[in-house]
Design a protein that fits this description.
This protein is mostly beta strands. The protein is built from 1 helix and 10 strands, in the order αββββββββββ. Helices cover about 10% and strands about 75% of the residues.
Length: about 220
């Protein structure tokens, strides 16, 4: 029985060493698609009663940028920290408020997004790593509110909005220091409010992004 236990431990150690990857820093580039939804509703500022107006703008945009990070492996387990930033190839999208006879016009444009996340992963085999991620993100977004004719600018906000990030992905190792990474993330940004005339606008932004990254480890 003792010999069987020793053989099992040796076999497990050998398997773990086969899957083990080198820890270290890496850099890379990414490209992908981002789907954002900017939803807003309106209340009367004095009473905080819902005015019945709302607006919703959805965008699907090309994104591209770079990343850097550090991975530390414990046999076939990974704990890593990754920072990335990407430009959103977005045009200004316009929506007319719904819910009343004299709707305002609302526009939204995402400019760039940065994030810092913790990656927790497991080596499925020598070439593939599955991971989940959690972190914080920041979006640079421009929002504008126009009058009922859509011509007079009533309010413009250039916001840096924070959000919580959740994701998962798969990393495929081409060589020991070269890999490609497929990543999906969901970001729920903090609510933003601003006053336009006698109304208060409450805006919520969410993002779903799918990216392909190429990474080089030092």
């Amino acid at each position: 029985m003792k010999n069987k236990i020793i053989l099992f431990v040796l076999g497990f150690s050998l398997t773990a060493s086969i899957y083990a990857k080198d820890s270290g820093f890496y850099i890379g580039g990414l490209i992908g698609k981002s789907k954002t939804k900017d939803y807003g509703k309106e209340t009367f500022t004095a009473t905080n009663i819902d005015s019945g107006y709302s607006q919703s703008i959805e965008e699907i945009d090309l994104i591209y940028g770079g990343l850097l990070g550090y991975d530390h492996y414990f046999d076939n387990f990974l704990i890593g920290l990754e920072f990335d930033g990407y430009k959103v190839d977005s045009d200004e999208k316009r929506d007319i408020q719904a819910g009343g006879a004299n709707p305002w016009h609302y526009t939204s444009e995402i400019n760039k997004v940065t994030s810092l996340k913790l990656r927790l992963g497991y080596l499925i085999n020598e070439e593939n790593l599955f991971y989940i991620s959690i972190g914080k993100a920041k979006a640079d977004i421009t929002r504008k509110m126009y009058n009922t004719n859509g011509t007079t600018l009533l309010k413009e906000l250039n916001d840096n909005v924070d959000g919580n990030l959740y994701g998962l992905g798969l990393e495929h190792f081409l060589e020991n220091n070269l890999s490609i990474q497929i990543d999906f993330r969901y970001i729920k940004y903090d609510e933003v409010s601003f006053i336009v005339e006698d109304k208060t606008e409450y805006e919520d932004l969410t993002e779903k992004a799918f990216t392909l990254s190429f990474k080089y480890k030092f």
